[in-house]
Acetyl-coenzyme A transporter 1 (Schistocephalus solidus), 242 residues
Amino acid sequence: GNAAYVFALADREGKRGPALAVRMLIPRGVREDLGPLAIIFFLYLLQGIPSGISSALPLILQSDARSADYTLQAAFSLSCWPYSLKLLWTPVVDAVFSVRFGRRRSWLLPLQLGIGVSFWVFAGRLDGWLGRSPGQRWGALATRHEIMVWPLTMTWLLITALVATHETIVDGLSISLLSKRNVALAGTCKSLGQSCGYILAYVAFLVLESPESSNAYIRQIPVPGQGIISFAGNSGELGLVC
């Protein structure tokens, strides 16, 4: 098809072939905004990570016989409300900003730092809230005490509120960064970025956290009772990324 023709044509250019092929496959108008598109995609990918963890948490809460009952899981679902309620504080975020840094950048860095610090706090307290014994990152839940779902929910509510506000800022930033002809691509970046972040933090995390799947499909030498990553450890690492 067209792609085969482009690569065949590019081969005639010798060493410049691969680079030329990529340039010919990407429309000229899009090439002008590749940098901003990459930034926007990455910011949306970071937003998808908390969404993936939010979906993984209920599975962790019901992972063994001492897991949280449906009442506690319903309480944790309250942490998703900021996505629906962000309309209440979005006008304030849009109106209050530093002229020096601009309307979007005034909020972007503080929100990014807030999300990262919140993840660090979450990672440090998580095993205690789940009632696991000290040092037992893959151990049974509620062995020391009952699962403390309300501190878990309140912390995650804060993270979700920060992420929901961050989404609003990036939506506006994408319009500012992209040229008029490429503004429509912001929606594509949002869909792809958030989906990739969600898959990374949900599907990939559950596979790597599970001792059973890690030992059966990934490790050459099984380590009984341990996955490749732990929930708390993974959350701390994500705090560095976010």
About this structure: The CA atoms of residues 214 and 227 lie 6 Å apart. The radius of gyration is 22 Å.
